[in-house]
């Protein structure tokens, strides 16, 4: 709590009273701590691939006669760490854009078309992974007054996670139910699941249940934080049901009148 007393004097400099302004700064301090934690996390996350890149470049520079096989292996690491750096920067910029944007373009969004775009993209990205992806829409013509990029990002991050955290041979189901009042997007997978104690935390920036697994599948730890902010902006909600070793279900509800 911050106290800001102001003393009142009359014209003869005699104290006649005081005004005390009491301000609860708990939220302010919390926000500031979150901000500095975020900066520390960002620095750490960016430094990790950079350290690896500069280390391998240095090794290649010093060892001129390195055998071609090892050289190629090192180059592949440099390439994948650079990709990771790019993904991280893209996600950090996107998160900051979403957090700081007061207004965005609003248009009539045909949900099925946005979904198909994401479906085609992710099917291509994971063409070598054996996952059975199914989807159903109760109305393929449904439109929502919203922002196309935001709706696309919700599909993209949730479907990408469902595929990433589901081992080969598994299933991903996407159901979209629209009514006059809202649109409900359900994404279910038969993947690794999330421990109960972690469910609350997965929407925090850079929080991963299993850091090594997230890294191996190319995660940045920002996907769900981005979605959380988008959904808040759209006045919607997100719910998670998950069972460890069995799978997860993410349910997003967006009201039709999300901008009124
Ligand atoms: P990441 O880039 O690590 O995937 P996200 O913010 O998208 O970051 O997700 C945070 C964490 O939540 C992931 O690291 C993972 O542990 C967990 N997670 C998200 N989606 C799923 C899912 N469908 N199945 C299991 N775990 C998931």
Report on this model:
It is built from seven helices and nine strands, in the order ββααβαββαββαααββ. It has 260 residues and is α+β, with helices and mostly antiparallel strands. The mean pLDDT is 93. The strands form three sheets. A five-stranded mixed sheet has the order 4-6-7-9-8, covered by helices on one side. Strands 1-2 form a two-stranded antiparallel ribbon. 47% of the residues lie in helices and 24% in strands. It has helices at residues 26-62, 68-100, 111-125, 148-164, 196-199, 211-216, 223-233; strands at residues 2-9, 15-23, 107-110, 132-137, 143-146, 171-178, 182-189, 237-243, 247-255. Helix 1 packs antiparallel against helix 2. A hairpin with a 3-residue loop joins strand 6 and strand 7 (182-189). Bound molecules: adenosine-5'-diphosphate (ADP). Residues 157, 161-162, 165, 189, 191-194, 202, 207-210, 214, 219-225, 248 line the site of adenosine-5'-diphosphate. Residues 41-258 form the Histidine kinase domain. It comes from Romboutsia weinsteinii. GO terms for molecular function: ATP binding; phosphoprotein phosphatase activity; phosphorelay sensor kinase activity. One of its GO terms (cellular component) is plasma membrane. One of its GO terms (biological process) is cellular response to phosphate starvation.
């Amino acid at each position: 709590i911050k106290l800001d007393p102001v003393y009142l004097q009359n014209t003869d400099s005699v104290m006649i009273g005081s005004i005390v302004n009491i301000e609860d700064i708990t939220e302010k301090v919390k926000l500031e701590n979150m901000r500095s934690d975020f900066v520390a996390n960002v620095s750490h996350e960016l430094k990790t691939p950079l350290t690896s890149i500069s280390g391998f470049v240095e090794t290649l520079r010093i060892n001129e006669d390195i055998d071609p096989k090892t050289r190629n292996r090192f180059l592949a690491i440099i390439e994948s760490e650079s990709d990771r750096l790019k993904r991280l920067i893209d996600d950090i910029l996107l998160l900051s854009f979403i957090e700081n944007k007061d207004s965005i373009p609003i248009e009539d969004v045909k949900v099925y078309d946005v979904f198909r775009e994401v479906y085609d993209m992710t099917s291509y990205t994971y063409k070598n992974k054996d996952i059975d992806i199914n989807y159903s829409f109760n109305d393929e013509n449904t439109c929502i007054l919203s922002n196309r990029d935001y709706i696309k990002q919700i599909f993209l991050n949730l479907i990408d996670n469902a595929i990433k955290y589901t081992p080969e041979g598994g299933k991903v189901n996407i159901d979209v139910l629209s009514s006059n009042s809202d649109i409900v997007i359900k994404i279910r997978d038969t993947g690794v699941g999330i421990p109960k104690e972690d469910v609350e935390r997965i929407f925090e920036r850079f929080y991963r249940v299993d850091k090594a697994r997230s890294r191996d599948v190319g995660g940045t730890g920002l996907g769900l934080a981005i979605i959380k902010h988008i959904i808040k902006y759209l006045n919607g909600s997100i719910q998670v049901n998950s069972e460890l070793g069995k799978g997860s279900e993410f349910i997003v509800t967006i009201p039709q009148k999300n901008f009124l």
